[in-house]
Amino acid sequence: MRRVRLRVWVAAVPMAALAVATIYPLVFTANVAMKTRHDYILDRFSLTSSLSWDNIATAWTSVGLGRYFANSVIVVASAVALLLLIGSMAGFALSHLRFRGSRALFLCFLAALFIPFQVIMVPLARVMADCGLMDTYPGLILAYVAQFLPFTIFLMTSYYSGIPGEIMDAARIDGNTLYGVYWRVMLPIGRPALLSVGILNALFCWNDVLISLLMMPSAEHRTLMVGVTSLRGQYSDDIPTFASGVLIAALPVLVLYLFFQRQIADGITAGATKG
Questions:
Q1: Residue 51 CA to chain centroid, in angstroms?
Q2: Which of 90, 125, 123, 92 minimizes the C-alpha distance to 109?
Q3: Are 250 and 29 in contact (CB under 8 A)?
Q4: What angle do CA 243, 46, 44 make, to 5 degrees?
Q5: Secondary structure of the chain in HEC code, one letter for each residue
Q6: What pTM was computed for the model?
Q7: CA–CA gap between residue 134 and residue 124 (Å, rounded)
Q8: CB-hemisphere CA count at 13 Å for 212?
Q9: CA–CA distance, 216 with 205 (Å, rounded to integer)
Q10: Of 51, 69, 35, nearest in space to 241 by CA
Q11: What is the pLDDT of residues 68-124, one digit of tens each?
C-alpha cells in the first residue's frame, strides 16, 4: 500500500504543478482585464477589488475586436467545412479504393506534413496575388485548406483503414453507387473521427497568426488573433485593454477544450496504431 501511495504521489505532484502552470496565466489575464489602468500601474499582481467590464467593452467595440471575431468565425467555419469534406472523401478513397498510385499519393500527403509553412509562404502569396485572392475571405480559406489538408487526410485515412472492407462490399451489393457508399455508410461511420479532426482544425485555424497576417494585410479583414496581436503595439501602455483582447480570443478555445476534451485527445492519438 505504501508503494502504491508513493506512486500516486509521484504522478500527482507533477500533474498538479503542470495544471497550476497552465491555469495561472489565464487567471492572471482575467484579473488584469478587470483592473483599471491606474490599479494595474499601482500593483499588477494584486487581486482586483471590483469586477469592471469596461476594458472588455472597449476592446470589443472601440478597438474593433467584434468585427475581427466575426471575420474569424466566417473563415474558420468555412475552412473546417471544406477540410472535413475533402479530407473524408480522400481518406475513404485512399483507404478502400485501390487504384494505381494510391500508395504514392498517400505518401505525398504524408510528406507534406513535414514542410513548414515558412517554406511555401512566398510562392503561396504570389499565386494568391495572381489569382486576385489576396485580402479576401476565399483566399484565406483556401490557404487554410492547403495548409491543414494533409493532416486531415492522414487522420481520416488512418481511421477508415480500420473499417472492414466487407462493409463497403455489402453496401455495393445492396445497390449503392460508390458515392452512395461514401455518403450513406462511410460518412456516418466516420463521425467520431470527423468531430475530432474538425475540432483540431478549428483550433489550428483560430490560433493562426502567420497565414492570416500574410493573406489579410488590411485592417478591415483581420482575424481575431491578428487583431489581438496588433493591440500590443497600439495599446502598449494600456495593458488591461490588451489583456481583455487576449481573454476574448482565448474564451472560444477554452470552451472547445472543456466540452470536447475526449475528442481532441482521440484526434491527437488517431493513427498511432493504424495506417
A1: 31
A2: 90
A3: yes
A4: 45
A5: CHHHHHHHHHHHHHHHHHHHHHHHHHHHHHHHHCCCHHHHHHCCCCCCCCCCCHHHHHHHHHCCHHHHHHHHHHHHHHHHHHHHHHHHHHHHHHHHCCCCCHHHHHHHHHHHCCCCHHHHHHHHHHHHHHCCCCCCHHHHHHHHHHHHHHHHHHHHHHHHHCCCHHHHHHHHHCCCCHHHHHHHHHHHHCHHHHHHHHHHHHHHHHHCCHHHHHHCCCCCCCCHHHHHHHHHHHCCCCHHHHHHHHHHHHHHHHHHHHHCHHHHHHHHHCCCCCC
A6: 0.86
A7: 10
A8: 25
A9: 14
A10: 35
A11: 999 999 999 999 999 999 999 999 999 988 888 888 999 999 899 998 888 999 999
C-alpha 39/C-alpha 35 separation (Å) is 6
The amino acid that residue 135 corresponds to is D
Which residue in this structure is represented by grid cell 500601474?
Answer: 41
Spatial separation of the C-alpha atoms in residues 204 and 75, rounded to whole Å: 12
Cell output for 90: 480522400
Measure the CA–CA gap between 176 and 197, rounded to whole angstroms: 27
What does the pLDDT look like over 117-170, one tens digit per residue?
Answer: 889 999 999 999 999 999 999 999 999 999 999 999 999 998 898 888 888 888
* Cα 225 to Cα 157: distance, rounded to the nearest angstrom: 31
